[in-house]
Amino acid sequence: MKVNVWNTINQLSKERGVQPRIIIKAIEESLRIAAARFFDKGEEVVVDFRPEKSELRVYAIKKVVSEAQNPASEISLDEAVLYDPTAQLNKTIEIELPAETLGRIAAQAAKQVIYQKVRDAEQEKIYQEFAPRIGEIVTGTVLRFENNGTILEIKQAEAFLPNKEKLPADEFRKGDLVKGVVTHVLKNTRGPQIQLSRTSPRFLIKLLELEIPEIAAGTIQIKDIIRQPGERTKVAVFSQAKDIDPIGACIGVKGNRILNITKELQGEKIDIIVWDSDPLAYARSALSPAKINKIVITNNQAKEMEARVDKQQFSLAIGKKGINVRLASKLVGWKISIIQEQKAKE
Predict the structure, then answer these.
(1) DSSP 284-325
(2) By C-alpha distance, which of 193, 183, 190, 184 is closest to 156?
């Protein structure tokens, strides 16, 4: 049977980025499954598909016998001559799928099963490409919005940014370019396989690496990071190189480096502090930008300390809704209480 599908296969291959041999294999599998409705005695179906020559044959091979004992592989001479008038005993014949049936099956396969096989191949390709990129930043174009998130297009693949992984101030329009860090790449799913986040600490870490060469090179290390997405983040950095000022390098000339990151994070404030192995010194830095007069440990076993500040610094140390002291406590790993200096004396 002549079937002109080679051009279609090549077109599908280019559009979907799937190799022609995968599409051909999908067609062969679907034809073999569909032909089982015609060859219903357990016959071994042979699919001879040569798309480049526009040739397609689907048939079963049976041995001609006087009386068939195994219908799957044998056929009686009386029945065999109906398919091949030249049939002889102890010879084999090829029983072909009727052209009309073959054409109908081929059309159905092209519309249904082939699409699914191509889709499976696409998903596998996406998985192989993006699974090694978990933890990296990617940029996608907003395609559409769903109830629980935003769908982005990245290199003909769809990625999902859940609403809970968006920053509070994030507002996107169709066609916007959006950055996010790859958190998951799923297999065997009907929806988008790639999942992104803009609230993950990993997203900020990768932004810092992109913007600050010293962090990317490893001369400045990010030791700790605590983030309240969209509001405030504290990043503890450290460098063994004596000629490098880790805070100055991260902030940049006139604050340009950190401002670029803040802009991407919709105004999220970023405090860069120096990491210290001494919890008291670390806590003093962590409470930045507040100026601390003195810090004392009040309960070593329970990991509790007290920071004393002037009245003018009290609100700054606490932060809006307690965010500054809360993040500092999480960063250091100690419970920090803020006390006004006058009250401390009393």
Answers:
(1) HHHTTTSPPSEEEEEETTTTEEEEEE-HHHHHHHH-GGGHHH
(2) 193
Question: All domains of the chain, ordered by start, with CATH?
Answer: 6-125 (3.30.1480.10), 138-197 (2.40.50.140), 200-275 (3.30.300.20), 277-346 (3.30.300.20)
Of 105 and 234, the structure prediction assigns the larger pLDDT to 234
Q: Which residue has 């279609």 as its token pair? A: 8
Residue 344 has pLDDT above 60, yes or no: no
- The rounded distance, in Å, linking the Cα atoms of 207 and 201 is 10
CA distance 313 to 310: 5
HSE (side-chain half, CA atoms, 13 Å) at 9: 21
SS3 333: coil
pLDDT (average), residues 213-230: 95
- Alpha helices in the chain, H assignment, sequence order: 6-16, 20-35, 77-83, 99-111, 113-130, 201-211, 213-217, 246-251, 256-264, 279-286, 311-318, 323-332, 341-345
**E-state strands within 117-275:** 137-146, 149-154, 157-162, 177-185, 194-197, 221-228, 232-238, 269-274
Nearest-angstrom CA–CA distance, 23 and 119: 10
> What are the distances in angstroms from CA 41 to CA 70, 98, 304?
9, 17, 79
In what side-by-side order are the strands of the sheet with 294-299? Answer: 294-299, 304-309, 335-340
Q: Which two tokens stand for residue 255?
A: 């604050």
CA atoms within 13 A on the CB side of 119: 14
What's the pLDDT tens digit per position in 270-291?
999 999 999 999 999 999 999 9
Spatial contact of 324 and 317, defined as CB atoms under 8 Å apart: yes
pTM of the predicted model over 0.90: no
DSSP strand pairing (157-162 vs 194-197): parallel
Q: What angle do CA 336, 337, 339 make, to 5 degrees?
A: 140
Contact, 58 vs 102, CB < 8 A? yes
